[in-house]
Amino acid sequence: MRVLRNRLRLDQTAFAAYLNEKLDRRYSKHKVSNWETGGDRVPKEVQLLVDEELSAALVLAVCNQKGGVGKTTTTVQLAAGLALRGKRVLIVDCDPQASATAALGLPAGDLFRARRTLFHVLVEERPIAETIVKGIQGIEHLDGVASHIELGGVEMLREPGRELLLREQLAAVRSDYDYILLDGPPNLGLLMQCILTAADEVLIPVRPEPLDTMGLALMLTTIGKIQKRTNKGLRVIGILPTLAKSRAVELEVIQSLLESTTVPVLKHVPDSASFSMALAAGRIAIEQRPKAKGVSTYVDMVERMLRGEPLSLETMMPSDAGAV
Ligand SMILES: Nc1ncnc2c1ncn2[C@@H]1O[C@H](COP(=O)(O)OP(=O)(O)OP(=O)(O)O)[C@@H](O)[C@H]1O
Ligand SMILES: [Mg+2]
Question: Which residues form ligand 1's pocket by a CB distance below 6 Å?
């Protein structure tokens, strides 16, 4: 039970409320505490719910409507990192630009002709299980669903309940994976709504530049609407400053983020050539150079996710990092 509670990042009071909502009961914090310490026997229906929730994949969306902020890099590194540690991971490329598809070395054109892309899942309602590519880059537990430029056509769909399309499809494979990671597109269209409706958690990469962080308010407003309308349980696990070069203006931006938002600001990912070097070699940085600058930040995130711990928080950028 504690494992699930940690995964949901809830204290005992909030976990009791979560159970009460799911099961229509009136359990207290005290009850949860007694179950966790073995003082009281856990009721069957509570145990069943806990087991069910733990056996289903955690769905993590990596989203920001701003382009070029490190969404794809973050999704690919975390997915590969978790798979390398033995977790069963599905990465779903939800961006018509198909950058994650390319970064993973998947042949978008061939997969499109074989009707094995997210376009076919969402528009033609092909079961997602039939589109999954297994063992990407020889990593045993790393599976993926490719994207293709035609995925942009999803925005034209006019059917009722269309923002539920991805959630419905993922339900069929949730028990086959430990983690499902969704790489979001750089806009606030229907795909973004589908992703946020399907996710349990959302991570927001952001470049510590004044104009980039201004867009954050819009992203958080969108998340707020999703939480109200289509996905009450969606949790924001943090804002992740990426591509940080430790320039004075970036230090200021991160400092103001720390002061102005209630969302956790995570330890920044420094700018590093390792990501593009690995890409150029057709590899994934976390597999090729896990100790390299920048890459090791993702390794730390993976380790914390595995332990069910909160991700590292930013305190402030180190002053000896070459600020100008
Ligand atoms: N920490 C980093 N250090 C250096 N380069 C990085 C870092 N993170 C990402 N990059 C590079 O920055 C570029 C943009 O990153 P990425 O594609 O991950 O962003 P994105 O938010 O997914 O972009 P888009 O909005 O177009 O989907 C890529 O060339 C990527 O290799
Ligand atoms: Mg991207």
Answer: 67-73, 95, 97, 99, 186, 242-243, 269, 271-272, 275-276, 294
- Determine the residue type at 220: L
Query: Can you tell me whether residue 254 is helix, strand or coil?
Result: helix
Mutate to test the pocket of ligand 1, among 62, 64, 72 (most ligand atoms within 8 A of CB): 72
Nearest CA to ligand 1 atom 29: 276
Report the atom number in ligand 1 closest to the C-alpha of 276: 31
Q: Which atom of ligand 1 is nearest to the CA of 183?
A: 22
Q: Model confidence over 76-118: pLDDT tens digits?
A: 999 999 999 999 999 999 999 999 999 999 999 999 999 999 9
Q: How far is the CA of 5 from the centre of ligand 2 (A)?
A: 31
Q: Is the pLDDT score of 317 beyond 80?
A: no
**248 CA to centre of own chain:** 29
Residue 9 CB burial class (10 angstroms; 0-12, 13-18, ≥19): middle
Which phi and psi (to 5°) does residue 205 adopt?
-70, 145
CA of 204 to the centre of ligand 2 (A): 12
Domain ranges of the chain: 2-51, 56-307
Question: What value does the mean pLDDT take over residues 278-292?
Answer: 96
Predicted confidence (pLDDT) per residue in 126-181, tens digit: 999 999 999 999 999 999 999 999 999 999 988 889 999 999 999 999 999 999 99
Q: What is the pLDDT of residue 318?
A: 53
The CATH classification number of 56-307 equals 3.40.50.300
CA distance 298 to 300: 5
